[in-house]
Amino acid sequence: MGGEGMTATYKPLTWPLFLELIRLPAKTASLLPFLFGVAYAQYAFGQIDWINTGLYFVGQMSIALFVTGFNNVQDFYKAKDEHYRQTQNIIGREQLSPRRTLALMGGFLTLACVMGLILVFRTNLSLLFIGGAAIFVAIFYTAGPVPLSRMPLGEILAGLCEGFGTIFIAVFVNIVPQPIDLVLQGQQFALTGNLAVILELFFVALPIVILDGTVMFADNICDLDQDVINQRFTLPYYLGKPLALKLYPWSAIAAFACIALAIVFGFEPWLMLVVFALVPFVRRNVKIFLAKQSKAETFGTAIANLLSVAAVQVVVLTISGLWQ
Questions:
Q1: Residue 161 domain flag
Q2: Nearest to 73, CA basis, from 51, 98, 44
Q3: Is residue 100 a contact partner of residue 13, using CB atoms and an 8 Å limit?
């Protein structure tokens, strides 16, 4: 299954199929952490570098497109269930060329790397290692002999990379001095960092980190039976579905608790209290998912919780930054 036969015929990747391949609606989950980071740079540090912001936007969205398309191809190749491969995975279902799809995703990855290198020259060398770690996770999440997605790490990695990583870099490229600085002088190097700023950024990012990881958690709960057939042993597999469902509501509680603490500590404005108006909406979505775990019918509630909370946070930070 690793190659393409000489007589194989494939359908062209039309625009509608491309949008499905990269799961366009889900890209909002990548866009909002970026917007949060930019808004927080303005609110907390009073700085915006629009050139760096534009470069990072192109790089971040490129890597987001790469990850989704690349994962679809890897899931097609690694699937043990032929029914899944031919009827559920978009590569097999729509008879798309895996090689051509990989080549297209490689183009997005290359574009992301180019944007990253430009930003390294415009900031400092530490960004090379920060971005490199994120790209490593993006590639080996589904690639390699033991993909990260087939281990109980997906929720943590998704939250940290797409949540904290995106927010941290969005702030990093906008403020001077940067939170971390790496300088090479001959055979010597000096690494310095502002621990207070780094911890502040991690703390304010935690609600998005948690809710982003919860989206992956909900996804893996819905796919648990199919994942076991395809030998993907995710966190819900190790927890067991009953325990996974008991833990699920606590993620939303933890996210709101972190927002409350961020306000108390002065990291976020008091206006951020308006986020708590979403509590009934989030609670209702959690109950809907607990009643039935379906990718088609209820999985969207996890995404809706992430997007609604993150969107309100971005709006509040933007307004507060403009008022200062």
A1: yes
A2: 98
A3: yes
Q: Which domain holds residue 223?
A: 23-317
Tell me whether residue 12 is in a domain. Answer: no
The answer to whether the CB of 56 falls within 8 A of the CB of 170 is yes
Helices (H), the chain: 15-21, 28-45, 50-78, 82-87, 90-93, 98-122, 126-140, 154-158, 166-172, 195-222, 224-229, 235-239, 241-264, 279-291, 300-323
Does residue 15 sit within a domain? no
Q: Is this prediction's pTM over 0.85?
A: yes
Task: Look at residue 228 and give its three-state secondary structure.
Answer: helix
pLDDT in tens, 122-161: 999 999 999 999 888 888 876 666 667 667 877 888 788 8
Identify whether 323 is part of a domain.
no
* Residue from 215, 175, 213, 212 nearest 197 by CA: 175
What's the domain count of the chain? 1
N-term to C-term CA, the chain: 58
DSSP string computed for 243-277: HHHHHHHHHHHHHHHHHHHHHHTTSS-GGGGGGGG
34, HSE (Cβ side, Cα atoms, 13 Å): 18
